[in-house]
């Protein structure tokens, strides 16, 4: 297994920029995995995508992977650094899966992460710090993403929280929770 790093935090906190900094510092070929789908009819979304694209070096390979994340990760080479931005969008893209299918997708993803020899950086949004969503799909999204981030965090070499203009290394500052506990 290569290095596995999780970068999490609230919206517009600098998560992606920190992940991009770590990818540049890796000295490896960078593969940027964008989980968002390109929607030309949404001007604001296009602006967000453009902002991300402008920051990235020209020599980075970009793959648009809205759903088949595990397959893409499994196909990466050991001498590369894969930056996945973001897990929240990946979860949103799979929200229509029933609970059994979702559990299978998560299990496949977590096993794949542990088998890949490439370094991997995962960007994930923190959604559970606010009000419980008033609608079922919002609660499903929040719960699935929160659980995924927790499970991934337990197998990561390093976990960062980016907030308030700072990247905090939670691996050195915190204590890892036991794997078996599930608070859902």
TrEMBL record:
A GO molecular function assigned to this protein is:
cobinamide phosphate guanylyltransferase activity
**Does the keyword field hold rRNA-binding?**
no
Q: What is its EC number?
A: 2.7.1.156, 2.7.7.62
* Catalytic activity as recorded in UniProt: adenosylcob(III)inamide + GTP = adenosylcob(III)inamide phosphate + GDP + H(+); adenosylcob(III)inamide + ATP = adenosylcob(III)inamide phosphate + ADP + H(+); adenosylcob(III)inamide phosphate + GTP + H(+) = adenosylcob(III)inamide-GDP + diphosphate
Please give the Pfam families that the UniProt record associates with this protein: CobU (PF02283)
Q: Does the keyword Nucleotidyltransferase apply?
A: yes
Q: Tell me which UniProt keywords the record has, alphabetically.
A: ATP-binding, Cobalamin biosynthesis, GTP-binding, Kinase, Nucleotide-binding, Nucleotidyltransferase, Transferase
Q: Which domain of life is it from?
A: Bacteria
Pathway annotation: Cofactor biosynthesis; adenosylcobalamin biosynthesis; adenosylcobalamin from cob(II)yrinate a,c-diamide: step 5/7; Cofactor biosynthesis; adenosylcobalamin biosynthesis; adenosylcobalamin from cob(II)yrinate a,c-diamide: step 6/7
Against InterPro entries, the record matches this protein to:
CobU/CobP, P-loop_NTPase
> Which CDD domains would you find in this protein's record?
CobU (cd00544)
**Which PANTHER family would you find in this protein's record?**
BIFUNCTIONAL ADENOSYLCOBALAMIN BIOSYNTHESIS PROTEIN COBU (PTHR34848:SF1), PTHR34848
Give the protein's function.
Answer: Catalyzes ATP-dependent phosphorylation of adenosylcobinamide and addition of GMP to adenosylcobinamide phosphate.
Give the UniProt family note: Belongs to the CobU/CobP family.
The name of this protein is Adenosylcobinamide kinase
């Amino acid at each position: 297994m290569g290095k596995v790093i999780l970068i999490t935090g609230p919206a517009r906190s600098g998560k992606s920029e920190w992940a991009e900094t770590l990818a540049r510092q890796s000295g490896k070929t960078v593969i940027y995995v964008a989980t968002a789908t390109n929607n030309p009819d949404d001007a604001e979304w296009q602006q967000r995508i453009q902002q991300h694209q402008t920051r990235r070096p020209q020599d980075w390979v970009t793959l648009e992977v809205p759903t088949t994340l595990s397959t893409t990760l499994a196909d990466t080479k050991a001498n590369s650094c894969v930056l996945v931005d973001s897990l929240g969008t990946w979860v949103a893209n799979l929200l229509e899966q029933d609970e059994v299918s979702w559990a299978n997708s998560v299990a496949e993803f977590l096993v794949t992460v542990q088998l890949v020899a490439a370094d991997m950086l995962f960007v994930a949004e923190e959604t559970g710090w606010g009000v419980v969503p008033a609608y079922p799909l919002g609660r499903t999204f929040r719960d699935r993403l929160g659980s995924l981030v927790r499970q991934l965090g337990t197998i990561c070499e390093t976990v960062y929280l980016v907030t308030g203009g700072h990247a905090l290394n939670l691996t050195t500052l915190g204590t890892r929770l036991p794997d078996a506990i599930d608070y859902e």
